[in-house]
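Progress narrative, Year 2. Work on RAP domain-containing protein from Photinus pyralis advanced from sequence curation to structure prediction during this period.
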Amino acid sequence: MKAFDLIAQLTRLRRIHTDCRLYSKINKEFSKAPVTVASSAPDYLIQNLRNARSSQNVLEIVKDHYNIMNSKQVMQALRSIYLLQKQGSQDLSTQQIMKNPSFERLCHKLKSQAGLIELNETIEALKVVSYVGVSSTSTIVQVLLQLLRHNINDLSLHHIIFLDFLLRQFKSSPLVEALLIALPIVFDVNLPVKIETRNVTYLVEYLQYVSKKRVSEKCISLIVNNLKTHCQDGSVLEPKLAKSIIWSICDMEDNEFFEPLLKDALNAMLFNIDAFDWRDLETTLSKLATKYSPQYPFYYDEVFYDTCASYVIDKDLGFQEALYTLRKMLKPNHSNEKLLSYLSQKCHEDPHLLLKAPPMTIFTVAISISLTEFRPIHWETMKNALAETTCFQDYKKPDILWMKLAAALCSLDVYKFDVLDKCFSDSYLESMIKQRNIFDFGNFILVCQAINAFQPNYAHLLPSTNIINNIFAQINHNENYPLEVPLIKGLGGEVYVKTGVTSKLAHHIDHVVVLRKGGYPISLPQDAKHLEDITVAPDSQIVLILVLGPSHYTINNKKLKASTALMIKTLEAKNYTVIPFSLEVWEGLADFEKVPYLMQEIKSSIENEQNMSEIR
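Result:
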C-alpha cells in the first residue's frame, strides 16, 4: 500500500475534514507560478541576503525586491533569518518577525512559488516558519504540509525523523496529526531499501527514532543487526553513540534480542567514561535500573554500577548525589560499600543531613544500609539519627513503603515506635491485605518475628495470631527441596529429616534434623505440626537447614541480605542452629560432591556452636 493511500485512509478514519477550497486555491497558485530559468550570472540578491547582518536587514531586502524574487531567493531569505536568529543576531524577536509586513509578504511569495521548491527546501521552509511561530493552521503551513503529503514516498529516512520532530512543535491540526501517524509507517516500509548500513551514526539515529514508535519487529531487528555487525567487526562506538544506543534499548520493550548490542554499548561507554558528565551517567544508570528484572538480568552491569559509585566519590558530588545513586542500586540489590562509607562520612561531617532530612531521604538511607550486614565507618552517628528523627510522625503521603521501612530499620536494630505504629494500624493492615503485595507480606512477617525475638516491649503492637497466620498463608513458599534426597542419603534415612517445617512465628524451614552428642542423627516425630513441637534431650541439638535462592543475596558480591540475616537471628535467638545453603553454590557442585559437602557443613556448624557454648 502506498503511503499516500495510507494517509488518506488514516485521515478518513480520524474524520479529518480538509478545506477543499484551500487546496483548489493552492493548485491554481501553483499553476500560475512563473517558471524561473537558471542563469549562469551571479545572483546578487542571494549574495546580499547571505551577507545580511540582521533579520531586520533581510526583511528590508525582501521589501525592496519583493516583486522580482524567485523561489531560490525566497528560500535564502528564510534561511538567513533562521541562521541570524539562531546565532544570536536578534535585533528582532520571533514575535516581531512574524508580525512584520515584509515577513508576511515573504510567506505569501513562498506560497505562490511553492510548486517550484525542492523537497529539501519544503522541509527547510517548514522549519523556519515553525521556529518563528507561524500557526499550523495558517495557509503557508498548510501548503507546505500538503507538499510533504504528496511527496511522502520520496522522503529519506532522515527527512522522516526530522519531520516527526518538527511536526510536534506545531499545535495539533488534522493534517499534522495525519502526518504524525503516517511517518512511522512510511519509515517502517522504506527502511529495507533506504537504510544506510555503513553509517553507524545514521543507524543509531534510526534506533533512537523507532524506540519511541510503533514499528514492526522486522524493522527493529534490521537496525539492531546492522549495529551488532559493526561492533563485531571491531569498531569502537563513539561515546555519544554508545549512550544513545543504551537509552534507545531501555526505551523499548524488554527483549533478550538486545543483550549483545547493549553489552557492546556499555563496554564502549565504560571505555570512554571520562567523555561523560554526571548527568549522562546518572540518566543511564536510572534507565538501566528501571529496566532490570530477574527475567531480564542483562540490563544489569556490575562494572557500570560500581563506576558510577566511584564517580560520585572521586568527584565528591556530595550527600544528595550519593543518596540518589544508592537508590538506583536498590532494585537489582547491588551493594557498594565504598559509596555507603562516603555517605556516612558526609553525615558525620554534618549530622543535620539526617536529623533534619525529609522522610524519603531517611527511607532511602535505611533501605540502602540494610541491604547487607556491612556497617559503614560512622555508623553509630547514622544509627542515632535514624532513631531520633521525628520526620515520620505526621507524615501521610503514600510514597513511603511503611512495612519495607520497618523491616529495614529492624535489620539495623532500630525499632521506631511511630513507624511500627503506622505499620500495624488496622487501616494500614487492611490496605496491605487488599493489595496482596507479596513483598509487603514478607516484610510484615519479618517485623513480627524481630519484635517477638528482640523487642518484647513492642509486642502489644502486633496484630492477632490469626492475622499473622492468614498473611503467612498468602506467601507461596518454594516446595522444591533439592537438598532433601542428599540429606536423607547422608544421614541414613528419611526418619532423620523433616522437610517443609513452619514455626509458630511464621518461619519456613526447608529441613530440620536433630543431632545428639557426637553428631549422630536422631529420628524425628513425623506428626509434629510446628517447629516448636519438636522436643529434644538436653545433649541434642536441633539443626535448621535453609536453602537460599539468589534473592537472599546481593547481586554483585553475593553477600547475605540483612533481612535474611535478621530472620536467621530470630531463629538462633530460640537456640536453634541454623545453616544457610546458597542454592547457586549448591547447583554448581557435581553430584558426587553434594553429600560430602552437606555433611561437612553440618559438622562444622555443630562444632562452632559447641565452641561458642563453651566460651559463653
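The mean pLDDT is 90. The first helix runs from residue 3 to 13.
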